[in-house]
Write a structure and sequence with these properties.
CATH superfamily of the largest domain: Response regulator
Radius of gyration: 20 Å
Order of helices and strands: HEHEHEHHHEEEE
Number of helices: 6
Helix content: 25-40%
Oligomer: single chain
Strand order of the largest sheet: 3-6-7
CATH architecture of the largest domain: 3-Layer(aba) Sandwich
Number of domains: 2
Structural class: alpha+beta
Distance between the termini: 22 Å
């Protein structure tokens, strides 16, 4: 009920080599949650140094990074367990409707699951084509008006694509949160309607 108290809030350079100073501050602060927004290379480097310092937090996330196979290979599967990552989309959503059609078509062509950025690129293009089709012209203002009125089934989390005025005509939908498991999988843990399993605090951390 009292909210959260932030004890360490610092930025760091991209492609860093030594995060020991920053991690030392986090360790000395005795925080319960560790949240960092990092690119893949920095996630791997920082997490390696995090483990070396003997750090452990019940809740840990590197933003969109965490579930990558490269990280598990570089760090060891035991050192990425229970890390949470939040992305715009996950192929685990593809169990029905047009999302399943997209996932199945992508897998048939590329022999692997689509990533979130491929799904968002596809859906952005699909929205534009729908706007042009509804406008019946390439006139930019008419296409914009058609997009503003769009209300269609979508592959985005929540299953609806809209550009409502009250949202600044931005598409609004929830992030998908996934969590690394001891068996090497990273199932969706939020939102509830898409969750494959509940989220779990790292049981190894005191």
């Amino acid at each position: 009920k009292d909210g959260y108290k932030i004890l360490v809030d610092e930025s760091f350079e991209l492609n860093g080599k030594d995060f020991s100073g920053l991690l030392g501050k986090v360790k000395n602060a005795g925080v319960d949650l560790f949240l960092s927004d990092a690119h893949l290379a920095d996630y791997i480097t920082m997490q390696r140094q995090y483990v070396t310092q003997g750090m452990c937090h019940k809740v840990q996330s590197y933003g969109a990074r965490g579930s990558e196979k490269q990280a598990a290979e570089a760090l060891g599967a035991d050192n990425v367990r229970y890390i949470l990552s939040a992305v715009w989309w996950n192929a685990q959503l593809g169990t029905q409707g047009i999302t399943k059609k997209f996932v199945d078509a992508f897998k048939a062509k590329h022999k692997r699951d689509p990533e979130w950025y491929q799904a968002m690129g596809y859906e952005s293009a699909r929205a534009l084509f729908l706007g042009i089709e509804k406008a019946g012209t390439l006139d930019r203002d008419k296409v914009r008006d058609a997009l503003a009125a769009l209300d269609v089934e979508s592959i985005v989390p929540g299953g609806k694509l809209q550009f409502k005025q009250e949202n600044g005509q931005q598409a609004m939908f929830p992030f998908v949160v996934q969590q690394n498991q001891p068996d090497g999988t990273a199932p969706i843990v939020w939102p509830k309607e898409a969750a494959k399993t509940p989220g779990t605090p790292n049981p190894s951390c005191k």
